[in-house]
Write a structure and sequence with these properties.
It is a peripheral membrane protein. The chain is of the alpha/beta class and about 230 residues long. The chain is built from nine helices and nine strands. The chain has a domain of about 140 residues: P-loop containing nucleotide triphosphate hydrolases (Rossmann fold, 3-Layer(aba) Sandwich). The structure holds adenosine-5'-triphosphate.
C-alpha cells in the first residue's frame, strides 16, 4: 500500500503545553488509519498540521511525499473538522454547492446529498441543523472534492445508531475506492469496525500501533487504550 502520510518525530508546543512530543506515524492509501487517545492527546493538533493549519516546530511531515501546505497536496485532501463554527446562515445544499466550486473535479452535490441522507434538511440554514445533521454536511464537505486523503475528526460523535452506521458505510466505501482515511474516535466499537491500522496516542506521541486484532490480543481494544494511555497532561 502506498504510504500517503509520513510523520516522523513531530513536536509542537503551545506555551508550556507539548501538544505533539515526538509523534511518529504513517497512513496508507486504501486503508482506514484510526488515531485513538485521551482528550488532549494531540490528535486534532496532528490533523491541523497535516492540513497546514499548524506547523510543527520540529520533525518531518509529508503528504504524498510533499509538504502539507503545497497547492497540489491541498487539492487532494478533505477535512471533516470536529466543529465548523464558521458556517451560519447558508443552507446545507448551498454550502455544498459553494464547496464543490473550489475543486476541479467535484462529486455531484446531488449524489452526496442522497448518499448521506441530507435531502430532508438540504434547505435548512446550517446553524439550525441538529448536531448530527451538521456532521452529515461536514462529511459531505470533506468528500466533495474527491480527495485521495481524508481526515475525519470524530466523524460519528453524537450520531444516532442509524446515522452512525450510514457514516461507517460511507467511510468503508471511500476506503475501498482507494482513499487514505485518517480518523479520530473515542468510540472503540467504531475503531474495531473500521480501522485497518490503529495508533494509540498519548501525551503527544504514539504509544503503540497495530491492527485491531494485534492490539486486542490480550483483551479488548479498550483494554489496550487504558493500558497505553495515562490521561495525564
Ligand atoms: N491553539 C492552541 N493553543 C493552545 N493550546 C492548544 C491549542 N490547540 C491545542 N492545544 C492544546 O494541545 C493539547 C492537544 O490538543 P488536541 O486538540 O490536539 O487534543 P485531542 O487529542 O484532539 O483531544 P480531544 O480528544 O479532546 O479532541 C491540549 O492540551 C490542548 O489544550
Amino acid at each position: 500500500m502506498e504510504t500517503v502520510v509520513d510523520a516522523q518525530d513531530l513536536s509542537l508546543a503551545f506555551g508550556a503545553t507539548k501538544a505533539l512530543d515526538g509523534l511518529t506515524l504513517s497512513a496508507s492509501a486504501g486503508a482506514v488509519t484510526a488515531l485513538l487517545g485521551p482528550n488532549g492527546a494531540g490528535k486534532t493538533t496532528f490533523i491541523r498540521c497535516c492540513t497546514a493549519l499548524e506547523r510543527p516546530h520540529s520533525g518531518s511531515l509529508t503528504l504524498f511525499g510533499q509538504s502539507p501546505g503545497s497547492p497540489d497536496v491541498l487539492s487532494r485532501i478533505g477535512l471533516m473538522p470536529q466543529a465548523t463554527g464558521a458556517w451560519s446562515g447558508i443552507r446545507a445544499e448551498e454550502l455544498l454547492r459553494y464547496l464543490s466550486r473550489l475543486y476541479a473535479d467535484p462529486q455531484p452535490v446531488e449524489a452526496l446529498v442522497d448518499l448521506l441522507g441530507i435531502a430532508p434538511f438540504a434547505r435548512t440554514p446550517y446553524r439550525r441543523l441538529s448536531g448530527g445533521q451538521q456532521q452529515a454536511v461536514n462529511l459531505a464537505g470533506a468528500l466533495i472534492g474527491r480527495p485521495s486523503l481524508v481526515f475525519l475528526d470524530e466523524p460519528s460523535a453524537g450520531l444516532d445508531p442509524r446515522a452512525r452506521r450510514l457514516t461507517w458505510d460511507v467511510v468503508r466505501r471511500v476506503r475501498d475506492a482507494g482513499v487514505a482515511v485518517v480518523l479520530t474516535t473515542h468510540d472503540m466499537v467504531e475503531a474495531a469496525e473500521l480501522a485497518d491500522h490503529v495508533h494509540i496516542v498519548d501525551r503527544g506521541r504514539v504509544q503503540v500501533s497495530g491492527s485491531v486484532s494485534d492490539l486486542a490480543s490480550h483483551g479488548s481494544l479498550e483494554d489496550a487504550f487504558l493500558t497505553h494511555t495515562s490521561g495525564d497532561r
